[in-house]
Amino acid sequence: MVNAFIRWVGNLSRLFAIMATFLIIAAMLVVCQMILMRYVFRLPTIWQTDFVVFSATAAMFLGAPYVLMTGGHVGVDVIELMVKERTRARMRIVSSFLGLIFCIIMLIASWVQFHDAWSGNWKHSSLWAPPLWIPLAALPLSFGLLCFQYVAQILALVAPGGKPTGDHAASANGLILDDLVELPHTKELPR
């Protein structure tokens, strides 16, 4: 049951990552089109800048659950490398709970913002004036899935039979950075 939930959340995170990829590609193509229109044909651009900003921002948020799942986030692990595995596991559980709490708060706040934009028919202030609920929809979606991804990560760390994900999978399988690269702190330094 736990592994099925972790797999389901992982597949959903992969789907969101694919959506994020397409949004980045679309933003890149629109930037090229905007440059062509402005500098080659000397025509004004109306919607392109807004589209690129909204697409790139949505891609960043929608891709976040996949980054969490794969352990691709930027982190400072100096303290984690200095402690024993048992303490390291506890630190991962605590940090996952803190991340979950933050994502729950952001889910609620972004849902309120999205709902206000939807019900108030908010429009962007540009000439294009797209409805703001469309770009804002990425926020509650991504924070909702981030909550699920944190729950899956916590379950993988604490449940018997759970399989760790991301960084935790590598260390649980006995493969950590120290095994790949010999760092100065992993061997006895000369005196």
Automatic annotation (TrEMBL):
Spell out the molecular function terms from Gene Ontology.
transmembrane transporter activity
Keyword Membrane on this protein? yes
Question: Where does the protein principally reside?
Answer: membrane
Presence of the UniProt keyword Transcription regulation in the record: no
Q: How does this chain sit within the bilayer? A: Multi-pass membrane protein
Q: What's one GO BP annotation on this UniProt entry?
A: C4-dicarboxylate transport
Could you tell me which residue ranges the Tripartite ATP-independent periplasmic transporters DctQ component domain spans? Answer: 28-158
Q: Which GO terms describe its cellular component?
A: plasma membrane
Where's it found, cell-wise? Cell inner membrane
Q: Which UniProt keywords apply?
A: Cell inner membrane, Cell membrane, Membrane, Transmembrane, Transmembrane helix, Transport
The protein's matches in Pfam families, at most eight in alphabetical order, are given as: DctQ
Q: Which InterPro entries match?
A: DctQ, TRAP_DctQ
What superkingdom does the record give? Bacteria
Residue ranges spanning the membrane: these are: 12-39, 51-72, 93-112, 132-158
What family does this belong to?
Belongs to the TRAP transporter small permease family.
Q: How does it assemble?
A: The complex comprises the extracytoplasmic solute receptor protein and the two transmembrane proteins.
Q: What does this gene product do?
A: Part of the tripartite ATP-independent periplasmic (TRAP) transport system.
Question: What is the name of the protein in this document?
Answer: TRAP transporter small permease protein
Record organism = Microvirga makkahensis
* Biological classification of the source: Bacteria, Pseudomonadati, Pseudomonadota, Alphaproteobacteria, Hyphomicrobiales
